[in-house]
Queue: 2 jobs
Job 1
Amino acid sequence: MTVKGSEMLPVSRSPMQRMLSKLSGNPRFIFGLVILALTFTAAILAPWVAPYPLGESELTLRLCPPGPGHIFGCDMDGQDILTQMLYGSRISLYVAFLTVALSLGIGGLLGLVSGYFRGWFDMTLMRLVDVFMAFPGILLALTLTAIIGPSFYTVVFSIAATGWTSTARLVRGQVLSVREREFVLASRALGAGGTRLIFKHILPAILSPLVVHATFSLSGVIIVEAGLSFLGFGARDAALTWGGLLGQASQVELDQATHLALIPGLAIFLLVMALNLMGDALRDALDPRS
Amino acid sequence: MLLFFAKRLLSLIPVGLGVIIIVTLMIHLVPGDPIDAMLGEYASHEDKEAMRHALSLDLPVAQQVTHYIKSVFSGELGSSLIYKRQVGDLLLERIPATVELALCALGVALLISIPLGVLSAVKAGSGIDFAAMSFAVSGVAIPTFWLGPLLILLFAVKLGWLPVSERSGLTSYILPALSMGTALAAALSRMTRNSMLDTLREDFVRTAKAKGCSEIRVIMNHAFRNASLPLVTVIGLQFGVLLTGAIVTERIFDWPGLGSLLIEAINNRDYPLIQGCVLLFSFSYLMVNVLTDLTYSWVDPRIRPSA
């Protein structure tokens, strides 16, 4: 009896292919991806698909409920909510990605150096991380934006000032375990220097947990940004963000502004849930034990 | 054990000191002159200098820090600009409202999450499990500042069952505690489920079953007791989320606690009061973290030798 070789041997696939096949079969990931893609599309196409120009207000339509002409109704200045939400998604996404990039960049670099070289730098950095982590949740971001004055970049800076610590701690921990592994030792024995070891060998090995962390950070930043805007400390020099719209609802009688409380909040909720689901799915897919 | 306690408490000193330094230096981040920001540009020169002296901003930075440390130890924390009273006293007055709210929220979270987590672990894969985990996934994503207004709309405005806001009587605690506790409940349900699933696979659970223990006894006395250990840590870690949740929740429900005091201080540029609130928030967070570690090591002796 002859058996073809390809039936005997499992097809060997790269880790990337295996991960993608796991992710594409995961309904939670697909759901998250669809929501994220929709938000991106809305953000990119805002100027073309928004029914009204941004900033156009009709005071007689103040807080008008959803209906023809204004599918999501109007806000307290008589501006179309759909238009504002389309433009607002740009800021929410921009803040989220910029902040996460900043905190990953700073925290990641410090964590890499700290975990690799250890010694006094590691000691000092970890104590600094402890201090920054002593400010729970949005406290530091809130106080910083309030003190410096709310603007787009203050919001980004303030949230990143809180966010870099968890990345630094995560990366440092990962580096500590990876730097003792055989492939790193082998490459060091071959004469590789610190920079090469860190960026060529250690960084690729710790990318998986970093990707998962980044996904969850995005959802965290979106909530914090919306929370700051809700409290009135969001980016004021740009269009109103989703949190800012929701904040308006708390300034008027709620029964007059049901739509104002419902719609932007729903958008935040869906986006955050989408990112969390994607993070969960990525974690499962990247876990070598699964 | 005592040594572990002492070490853990001592580790608080450098971090606490760091927090005080950041809080002291915060005021220098104010663009321009903080005194102008507080009094307005048109205040008289004498008033400005008097204020600068009162806030010890005329001293070198190092002395400002030591000055502030002294005021932390005396409990005064400077004088509030809007209330014209000592910040320490103001904070003391507001602590009970926030602590009560946080405890109620914690209670709500435990009441929801433990039965839900245990049930979904025992019935893993069933419809109940799916529903419970859907709650866990969505509960974590619901922002407090959305849930709060929604709860008010439903239970206070439409149904009229509960008061809208203000702290008066037991019923007024329900909505704020729910909106603050839901995210924690969601996180804890998931944790309880995972931890229970792990424990239910353990040998001692099988032994207990083999010895003829009733199902409920195995679940509660054998499995849950052990599965509840990681919950202690999660509750401790999530306490920070609860604390800052208070800032948003108190704003929504007009709750006279520390969160609304902080917002009031920020809106009035009352820097000494802002500093006091931030300091109290982070110190209580630090203390809860230490208590969590201590509780954990007390409940689980395996932790101690590594200390």
Job 2
Amino acid sequence: MADATVTLEVQRYRPEREDEPVWERFEVPARREWMVLDALNHVKDRLDGSLTFRWSCRMGVCGSCGMTVDGEPKLTCATPLAARGDGRPVRVEPLRGFPVIRDLVVEIRSFLGKLKRTRPWLIRDDDVPLAAGEHLQTPAELADYKQYSMCINCLLCYSACPIHHLEPDFAGPAALALAQRYNLDSRDRGAAERMEELSRHSGIWGCTFVGECSEVCPKGVDPAGAIQRYKLAAAADWFQSILLPWSGQARAKRREVAR
Amino acid sequence: MSRRRFHPRWFRRRTPIFWWLEKGVYVHFIVRELTSLAVAYAAALLVVQVAVLGAGAEAHARFAALLASPWAVGWHALVLVGLLYHTLTWLHLAPKALVVKLGGHRVPDAAILAGHYLGWLAATALVALVLVRS
Amino acid sequence: MGRPTEPFFWTLFSAGGMLAALVLPAVCFVLWIAAPLGWLATPDRAGWLALLAPPLARLALLALVALSLFHWAHRFRYTLYDGLQLHHLYGLIATVCYGGAATVTLVAAYLLLRLG
């Protein structure tokens, strides 16, 4: 019985011997339950050990295996290999919008810098001693930001965002959604600090609500929605600062409670 | 032994000028954004109407005749399509930015959208009330 | 580029977009399709002048025109940057778009004032 195969068309890039990426074809078994990642691992194990790509958990929670499959940003561990079933090759390329280091591995340092600049941690101005106990949070307060906390930094949204392609300085969907995750957390007091950094063209204002980021997000974070909400909050804050310049403290407090 | 560290040459893909033609979603995005031209045109035409109003009865009559020509009506039908597309896409995106909470629960997107459609209906009725003479 | 004026122009864009979305399709249909085709009757010249006599009416029309224009200005500015990658013309495009909107708004204000 001849095993059915699927043709994998993979983009290779080996800087030590080529100036530009090239395509290579591999025949892999057409296992019904395989994901694209399984096919890539098959290639690496049996056909070409030099194929370079990132992966880890293989169950859609680590965010390592983001690549472009048939033109769309996907987690290869969550993309079925034989979904199309029409015999055409499955094209696998590195995630678009980032420099390619080798084969399917991209350089994501720019994102890590952006992430750091959004201060994705709880910012408080008081030093609460351990003896005082935990910060308490109601289920309703958790629900306010939970969706935005689901981000696994897989960068599919950056790959889908045309603004990121056009302006590499753009903070981007994940960084801005994560900023919102903390802004909307009842334990956080850092909204003003983040607003200063992100209320600029390279921050929230560069976004033109294309919406593709939310479409490709594998965890349902909806970064597009997070950014639009952020714009509304930033605009309201700006107007209040202009019309009521003395309300600085009240505004800071308002940002905490305005959910 | 070479003292220079080897740094691989990264490959950077150039974004083509017409990047938005490569994917249907991006074409749709640009078309959506271009509906702002229909909005600007409508605003400008309103200004022209005011100008004509101030220019005397003859000018007013000539302008009305111009508006009635088949070319004008056809063109404005296209403008209407643009304006309607602006409205529909705008209303459907509104629930993303407007998160309303009632009694601790987030109002579902569908309700926000329905509210916007009702608002559109009310605004249309108002416009008709003001502008239409029986 | 840290532009402290972004929230302001975004608010105009947002308000203009909402107003235009709610009002302009009906205005376009009634004034420029239905009335010229004789499907509906709209005010005659005297009727228009009476409609626009109250200052509040003129203010409302000016607001509609201004917000619609500034909606276009902000949106078109970004469409040019992103659609045609004209980032190097950042300043020029902003000036032309907002300046254009402001100019037409001023013209409209002048015309409306003169009507009275």
